[in-house]
Model the fold of this input.
Amino acid sequence: VKARHPLHAPAFIALFTMVGLTAALIWGKPLHWLSWIALLVPIAVVAGCLRSPGRRPRGG
Amino acid sequence: VTRGAIARWRWVHSWTSLICTLFLLMLCITGLPLIFIDEIDRTFAGHVDVPELAANTGPADLDKVARIARERVPGETILYIDWGLDEPLYGVNMAPAGDAQDRRQLVFDARTGDYLEDLKGSRQPVRVFLGFVNRLHIQLFAGRRGELFLGAMGVLFLAALVSGTVIYTPYMRKVAFGTVRGNPGHRRQRLDLHNLIGIATLGWLAVVGASGTMNTVGKPAYDLWRKSTVPALIAPYKDVPLAAPTVGIRQAVDSAHAALPGSRMVRVTPPSATDGSPWHYVVWTQGDRPFTRRLFRPVLVDAQTGGVTLSDPAPWYLTAIQGSRPLHFGDYGGLPLKILWAVLDVLAIVVLITGVQLWWSRRRAERTA
Done:
């Protein structure tokens, strides 16, 4: 099985962060929740990965 | 990507990061209290309590407020009066003639015109601390040079983010996303931690880094625009003799509001030879939508006739700088956004520290070999 590119997941997270923050900046209070989620995602990713360390190398 | 190219990118990442790390650590640490500057000020610095009044009370007469301020501090001149953004307050900013740095702010109830507080007189330790942290964060106590220097560090930081992303790819080709290997304190674990936190927070780091870098050129860019715009606006007045204003502050603000009906008035500067125009009130306005509320536009009001001179809207680069400011401060999404901003700030500190540790351990290993 061909592995996904290592930047797929990071690119998605980065893009979501930027879009969420910018949308809340432009449209204000109705989209504040989106900016919260946009920042919660990277924090949750870090927390989740730290809770399950030492995952196996791909194909190992 | 060839092995040689990766080595070159790694060199770029190492040195761009190393040069700016110390300053970025300072910015991250001083940035933490600044995220909560309003909350800290409200809690510890004797926040001005605004009494409950009927909703339709006021607004107070600005000219009366200015008169009371001049009577309270007779030796000082009014630099400008601004409006509280969230509360019904007027801040009358004053300073001795010729010393604009030694300023004070008298706070008034914007509905009744009652005097509430002199912020210079209060001098709470918390405000002194916040002022110290703010100056260190913005300009390293080195004025414009310090700001521009930090801007250069911001450019290096952005280069470090780009180069870090490039070298992340080959490192992670055989490892699943988010893998953290090794035991605590081991080089491999530090590397994985640095990679994981750095790449997961990349979007936020890029947004805060780019907007912070833009902020450092904000003042020079604004001065450039003002120097090219204001002289042209007041050029027709150069032969008009100076006289005491016959138009009141309230009337000037009303004239500006009539000229830009969709705008909010946020500040008025009386006629001044040193700031703005000696023949005009300068009324600063902002838009009424979430984004345009961050964009300022000055309106000149003739102090003798009340006639209005509108400047062109700010150029694109000033709009970009003003509009991007909240993306650096994280102050536009309520307290939850500020808390998340602080968590990411701490994660950025971890990335910086693990980065230096990695460079140091690699250097030691190369020396031993």
